[in-house]
Automatic annotation (TrEMBL):
<dbReference type="GO" id="GO:0071770">
    <property type="term" value="P:DIM/DIP cell wall layer assembly"/>
</dbReference>
<protein>
    <recommendedName>
        <fullName>Methyltransferase</fullName>
    </recommendedName>
</protein>
<keyword id="KW-0808">Transferase</keyword>
<dbReference type="Pfam" id="PF13578">
    <property type="entry name" value="Methyltransf_24"/>
</dbReference>
<keyword id="KW-0489">Methyltransferase</keyword>
<dbReference type="GO" id="GO:0005886">
    <property type="term" value="C:plasma membrane"/>
</dbReference>
<dbReference type="InterPro" id="IPR029063">
    <property type="entry name" value="SAM-dependent_MTases_sf"/>
</dbReference>
<dbReference type="GO" id="GO:0032259">
    <property type="term" value="P:methylation"/>
</dbReference>
<dbReference type="GO" id="GO:0008168">
    <property type="term" value="F:methyltransferase activity"/>
</dbReference>
Length: 224
């Protein structure tokens, strides 16, 4: 199957519970079309996201599953309490979780499931080797993203994909770029726009993805 550049309509853009400017204009928004095309191409049966906030990335995955009528499940793990980079959500926290939960239940029933808790707590919910697409977008200091990578890697299926956001951010103590430099000897794609998105195949690159990796520049030009 060839890679298709879709022109999706993201239901989340019109969800009254979500801040539209954030979903369509926030730091992750520049990767939504790639994420959508990726899910439609890879057809992962299980997607897990670590770090969801208002769901810019999460709802892109869900949208692709819905539109392609895949029998896939997408889990969004977050405390919805914030971290030292996003700031503590304080009184916002319950309304943010409630918003993501409401949109998920209404627009993506049977597809998307928010899991409120820490990433470490969620580990027990997923068997080893079960996840085809893992998105790591939690706390961005080097030690935290390394911890998320090493603790969740056993959960990834053979040929599975890990997405890392913020791979080019060098502000303050952001350290994803450092981990990305260490990992990117493995097969990957990388986009520098919208704070950077790394697409890593740490357990081998499936034959279907080898020609896609060869189209790095074309994809970067298209999505960037
Ligand atoms: C950068 S935001 C996620 C952005 C989101 N992917 C998007 O598309 O907008 C990071 C989120 O990770 C959550 N977080 C950070 N560390 C966490 C941990 N160890 N366990 C659970 N949630 C965590 C924070 O609460 C925050 O909402």
């Amino acid at each position: 199957m060839d890679w298709t550049f879709h022109n999706p309509k993201f239901i989340a853009d019109a969800a009254p519970e979500l801040p539209a400017s954030f979903i369509a204009g926030g730091a992750w928004s520049g990767h939504r079309k790639f994420a959508y095309d990726l899910v439609r191409f890879a057809r992962p049966s299980l997607i897990v996201e670590l770090g969801t906030l208002y769901g810019t990335s999460y709802f892109s995955f869900c949208q692709a599953i819905k539109d392609a009528q895949l029998k896939s499940a997408c889990y969004a793990v977050d405390t919805w309490m914030g971290d030292a980079h996003t700031g503590a959500y304080g009184t916002l926290d319950d309304s943010m979780y409630a918003a993501v939960n409401a949109v998920s239940a209404r627009e993506f029933p049977g597809i998307g499931t928010p899991l409120r808790g820490t990433f470490d707590q969620a580990l027990a919910a997923f068997p080893d080797g079960s996840i085809q697409l893992l998105h790591i977008d939690g706390y961005h200091v080097y030690e935290a993203v390394l911890h998320d990578y090493t603790t969740w890697l056993p959960k990834l299926a053979e040929g599975g994909i890990i997405l890392f956001h913020d791979t080019v951010v060098r502000l303050a103590d952001f350290g994803v770029y450092q981990l990305w430099a260490e990992l990117s000897a493995m097969p990957h794609l990388h986009f520098e726009h919208s704070n950077g998105l790394g697409v890593l195949f740490p357990k081998g690159c499936p034959a279907s993805f080898q020609p896609i990796i060869g189209r790095q520049q074309e994809l970067a030009d298209h999505y960037g």
